[in-house]
Amino acid sequence: MDKTKDLITDTESLIIFGVIIVATLIIASLIGRYLQRILIRKIEDQNIDITSFIFLKHIIVATIYFFGFGWALLTLPISKNFAHSLFAGAGVSTLILGFASQQILSNIMSGVFLIIKRPFKINDIIEIQGNRGKVIGLDLHATTIEDENSDEIIIPNSIVSNGIIRNIRKG
């Protein structure tokens, strides 16, 4: 309880924490918008494959959030006092989270391999497990296709990478 009171009364640390969080949100938003503008320019040029650019944009913005929030947490005095306990609990938490998020991690790794291997790209017409449509999105978690009825079909990347992909027409 004393540690919590110390944290609340240490206004300087709270102000620094808040400034870092706000700065992280602003920087990530500005860089995300800048990269989005570059993406729009690339979309207008039909000869450029934008799949890698979208993936890179997501990675850059996620990295900014990760480091910004981590840095903000390190400014709090409570994190310095409990660092040893946090690291000890982190091992057990990682093990539990690893088992709990096995499907999510599978989708993320499959997304990375799909970006690297490029069996298809955005605007290609593909068929995956009976689902046929135009690829309109590819991120770390899922591939989004639009069928002939303009319905969006979201397919987890682990299914895409383990299934048979038929690339009907390259965009």
Provide a descriptive summary of the structure in words:
This protein is an alpha+beta fold and 171 residues long. The protein is 65% helix and 16% strand. The protein is built from seven helices and five strands; from the N terminus they run H-H-H-H-H-H-E-E-E-E-H-E. Strands 4-3-2-1-5 form a five-stranded antiparallel beta sheet. Helix 2 (11-44) packs antiparallel against helix 3. The model has no long low-confidence stretch (mean pLDDT 80).
Short structural summary:
The chain has 171 residues and is of the alpha+beta class.
Secondary structure layout plus pairing:
Elements: H1 2-9, H2 11-44, H3 51-75, H4 77-81, H5 83-100, H6 102-117, E1 125-128, E2 131-138, E3 142-146, E4 152-156, H7 157-162, E5 165-169
Antiparallel strand pairs: 1-2, 1-5, 2-3, 3-4
Poorly predicted ranges: none
The number of helical elements comes to 7
Oligomer: single chain
Count the strands?
5
Beta-strand content: 15-25%
Radius of gyration, in Å, reads 21 Å
| N- and C-termini, Cα separation | 61 Å
Quick check: average pLDDT? Answer: 80
The outline comes out as: flat
Q: Order the strands across the largest sheet as they lie in space.
A: 4-3-2-1-5
